[in-house]
């Protein structure tokens, strides 16, 4: 099933490690704590601007460096070095948030932005390691194992952190603010501790030793990678489809809270929904891994997209907060699955020895996601004066993605990747 059990499990555990940051810090506490604690002296408009600016700047840096990181990943031993470097950056910056006092919002924003850069930068070498730890027969299962452990680990720590904030005296803390700051430190320690297995037991087997080159040569290599991708039309077409449907997925995730609030739902309901999605995502991602191995990753992605289309229609007609919980369950059933199978399918369509450079492009496209969707949702909502109309516009992304995905011949793509690797 899995070519090397310990390396595969060690690799998957890293998702358990870094998902604590994604859930507790990025999605959970930092946005609210930044506005209410660190930037409490700013107006609501100014704090929103600076938070958005920090997120956008960090995302833009990742988009710029992801392809370059992918190139470096293909050099001998560089996947692990890059993983260590960016994970360490994320861990140290996240832990540093514990030390930031009230009112020091520029420092908090700087540390957060660098932590986001570390989090996203480490994902490039992490994804590129997938062909190292799984053979062709287990790509879907191993990829899904990572996402499922991420949902479980991130959800467990987030639940504990929420408990700390809601009942600080139970943990010997003075107030909720102290609990939130301590949560940042706990996330950093969690991330560092559970990163050890991948550093100890996963090795760069397929990396080729390459001479060090100057910056211009690296950019030349980047353009060569795009040209090589055009020699793999199935991988190229899939990457375009992935960009569109993952844009739809990310738009649903990013706009869900705003949409729920616009319908009059309480913020506590939205927090509960986030936890529901995390815990449903754990077994569902595992199930999708087995489903993808049985019927193929492409068919599994088809199923997930169909569920998302139904989710959009359900959200369009939603009336009560209880329905928002049902929506959270539905999203949890497919969110990890579509991510896991997408990563596995792309790994099938590229040559193993160049996995780093191609996954650099894959992650760049992933970070470009949610560029079209949120703007389109907002524009349509204003045009029709209805948030419900805005949410329906996401169907356009899924529709075009379906057309592109239908043109991806997986068997032909695998043959092309094998031929390019031999050549």
Plain-language structure description:
By secondary structure, the protein is mainly α. The chain folds into two domains: 1-136 and 146-202, MFS general substrate transporter like domains (Growth Hormone, Chain: A, Up-down Bundle), CATH 1.20.1250.20; 213-423, Up-down Bundle (Growth Hormone, Chain: A), CATH 1.20.1250. It is built from 18 helices and no strands.
Task: Sum up the structure in keywords.
Growth Hormone, Chain: A; mainly alpha; 18 helices; single chain
Individual helix count: 18
Low-confidence stretches: none
Q: At the fourth CATH level, what is the homologous superfamily of the largest domain? A: MFS general substrate transporter like domains
Query: In total, how many beta strands?
Result: 0
CATH architecture annotation name of the largest domain:
Up-down Bundle
CATH classification, class level of the largest domain: Mainly Alpha
How large a portion of the residues is in β-strands, by DSSP E? under 5%
Counted up, domains total: 2
Largest sheet: none
Structural class: mainly alpha
What sequence of helices (H) and strands (E) makes up the elements? HHHHHHHHHHHHHHHHHH
Report the CATH topology name of the largest domain: Growth Hormone, Chain: A
The separation of the N and C termini measures 29 Å
Mean pLDDT: 85
**Overall outline:** globular
Helix content, binned percent: over 70%
Query: Nearest-angstrom radius of gyration?
Result: 21 Å
